[in-house]
């Protein structure tokens, strides 16, 4: 790359032919500089010099070998669908250095990436401390792409120390043979990101869709039913059996480029959760936040964006929302600060606003923050706290001073900005306090 660049773009053309590539500014992913002098556009010489890549695996191998100036980021631009299963591992050599994968802006639909739990190499296999887990990628951010995964009824992560993004074409992930699947996970001391960078001043809708096509037969992960987490760890939303080095002590960044998303006349950001395997009596669990099982998970950010949620009622989707927020997140010294809002429900009601079936709503449980976990809602009449906004909207839906989300201040749980009715007393069990003081002494 030439001097002074802040991004190095490697282009992937599925046919391997320059003639089939998007040309000019259309060859560059949305959100990056694409001028003639930017050095990001594809040219015949540049494509040849970078190996005429046809797959992501090839492009990542090239990215690991080329010189990248300090502070610059690596972006892989996809010029079409990658229908063949990626061999992997999807990472930069033996690291999880950040690399961004996105569709060229000239594509009308996000490019397809095909991954398979039995054929795509584990991106964690080269890290002894994580090798018992499986991730399709390490350090990768998938933006404006359509990822198809077949999990073969086994647990896995889509991204590890990476994340996802939605700019022009949005993000879609289709899942076959679901057991336990987490979109984003990270290692201790690191973080995971969700970037929203669509053009805000337009009358358009940009979507993230997580679509479960089928449930794995037989074994169903570590719980009595399969589960899907946006941010999560192995074990499901009411348990946590992952490594002590994954999912704990991590930061979640949900980064909105513009504060006006969701306002009248501005871009509408929709997060969809579509569940097509409706033949089962017990639907899969859906959890937004299930990191921090052993504490130390933090999140927060812009408070102004308004997010629309779609739980798939138009497709007949059924979910189990018992743990929309994971059990262990609620009780292990985690924090969620002021952040984005979800669409208010007064005009249409909860079910219509969020396109949720009554059966799904009936599983949406009340919860309590304790043992050091806390959130900042900013104001009681309208939460400004990301996924926790759904609890307030449930209270509005049910009325009669109903309280869906509480905390135990005595045990360090707190809802900053909440009214006193949200504070409840701790419940103790006699076994917590031995009657014989001698039985509670330290022994050396």
Protein described:
The protein has 444 residues and is mainly beta. The chain has helices at residues 44-49, 56-65, 350-353, 358-361, 389-398, and strands at 7-12, 73-78, 82-85, 99-103, 111-116, 140-143, 145-150, 156-160, 163-166, 171-176, 180-185, 191-196, 205-212, 227-232, 251-256, 268-275, 285-290, 298-299, 306-310, 335-336, 341-342, 367-369, 374-376, 405-407, 414-416. It starts with 6 loop residues before the first strand and ends in a 28-residue tail after the last strand. The model is unreliable at 219-223 and 439-444 (pLDDT under 50).
Topology at a glance:
Layout: E1 7-12, H1 44-49, H2 56-65, E2 73-78, E3 82-85, E4 99-103, E5 111-116, E6 140-143, E7 145-150, E8 156-160, E9 163-166, E10 171-176, E11 180-185, E12 191-196, E13 205-212, E14 227-232, E15 251-256, E16 268-275, E17 285-290, E18 298-299, E19 306-310, E20 335-336, E21 341-342, H3 350-353, H4 358-361, E22 367-369, E23 374-376, H5 389-398, E24 405-407, E25 414-416
Parallel strand pairs: 1-2, 2-4, 3-5, 4-6, 5-7, 6-9, 7-10, 8-11, 9-12, 10-13, 11-14, 12-15, 13-16, 14-17, 15-18, 16-19, 18-20, 19-21, 20-23, 22-24, 23-25
Keywords:
single chain, 444 residues, mainly beta, 8-stranded parallel beta sheet, 8% helix, globular, disordered C terminus
Oligomer: single chain
- Cα distance spanning the termini: 63 Å
Runs in which pLDDT lies below 50 for 5 or more consecutive residues are: 219-223, 439-444
Q: Any idea what the radius of gyration is?
A: 23 Å
- Judging from the principal axes of the Cα atoms, what is the shape? globular
Strands, count: 25
Helix-and-strand structural type: mainly beta
- State the order of secondary-structure elements, H for helix, E for strand: EHHEEEEEEEEEEEEEEEEEEEEHHEEHEE
Enumerate how many helices there are, as a single number: 5
Mean pLDDT: 90
Taking the sheet with the most strands, its summary is: 11 strands, parallel
Estimate the helix proportion, in percent: under 10%
Proportion in β-strands: 25-35%
- Order of strands in the sheet with most strands: 1-2-4-6-9-12-15-18-20-23-25
């Amino acid at each position: 790359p030439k001097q002074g660049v802040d991004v190095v773009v490697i282009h992937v053309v599925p046919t391997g032919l320059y003639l089939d590539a998007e040309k000019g500014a259309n060859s560059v992913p949305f959100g990056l500089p694409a001028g003639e002098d930017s050095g990001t556009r594809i040219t015949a010489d540049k494509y040849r010099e970078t190996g005429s890549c046809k797959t992501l695996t090839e492009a990542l191998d090239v990215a690991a070998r080329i010189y990248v100036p300090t502070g610059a980021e690596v972006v892989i631009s996809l010029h079409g669908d990658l229908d063949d299963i990626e061999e992997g591992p999807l990472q930069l050599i033996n690291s999880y250095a950040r690399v961004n994968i996105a569709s060229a802006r000239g594509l009308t639909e996000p490019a397809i990436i095909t991954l398979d739990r039995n054929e795509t190499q584990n991106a964690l296999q080269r890290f002894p401390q994580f090798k018992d887990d499986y991730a399709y990628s390490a350090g990768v951010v998938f933006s404006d792409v359509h990822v198809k995964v077949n999990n073969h009824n086994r647990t896995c992560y889509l991204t590890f120390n990476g994340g996802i993004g939605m700019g022009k074409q949005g993000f879609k992930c289709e899942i076959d043979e679901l057991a336990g699947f987490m979109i984003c996970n990270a290692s201790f001391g690191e973080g995971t990101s969700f970037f929203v960078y669509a053009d805000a001043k337009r009358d358009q809708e940009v979507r993230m869709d997580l679509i479960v096509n089928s449930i794995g037969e037989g074994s169903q992960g570590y719980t009595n039913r399969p589960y899907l987490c946006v941010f999560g760890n192995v074990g499901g939303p009411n348990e946590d059996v992952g490594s002590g080095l994954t999912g704990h002590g991590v930061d979640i960044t949900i980064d909105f480029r513009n504060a006006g998303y969701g306002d009248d006349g501005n871009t509408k950001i929709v997060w969809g959760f579509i569940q097509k395997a409706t033949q089962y009596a017990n639907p899969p669990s859906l959890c937004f936040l299930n990191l921090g099982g052993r504490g130390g998970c933090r999140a927060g950010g812009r408070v102004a964006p308004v997010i629309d949620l779609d739980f798939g009622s138009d497709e007949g989707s059924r979910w189990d929302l018992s743990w929309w927020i994971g059990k262990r997140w609620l009780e292990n010294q985690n924090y969620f600060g002021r952040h984005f809002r979800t669409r208010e429900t007064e005009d249409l009601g909860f079910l219509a606003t969020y396109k949720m079936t009554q059966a799904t709503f009936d599983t949406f449980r009340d919860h309590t923050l304790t043992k050091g976990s806390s959130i900042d809602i900013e104001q009681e009449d309208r939460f400004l706290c990301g996924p926790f906004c759904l609890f307030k909207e449930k209270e509005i839906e049910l009325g009669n001073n109903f309280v869906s989300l509480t905390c135990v201040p005595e045990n360090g749980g707190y809802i900053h900005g909440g009214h006193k009715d949200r504070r409840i007393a701790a419940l103790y069990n006699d076994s917590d306090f031995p009657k014989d003081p001698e039985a509670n002494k330290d022994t050396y």
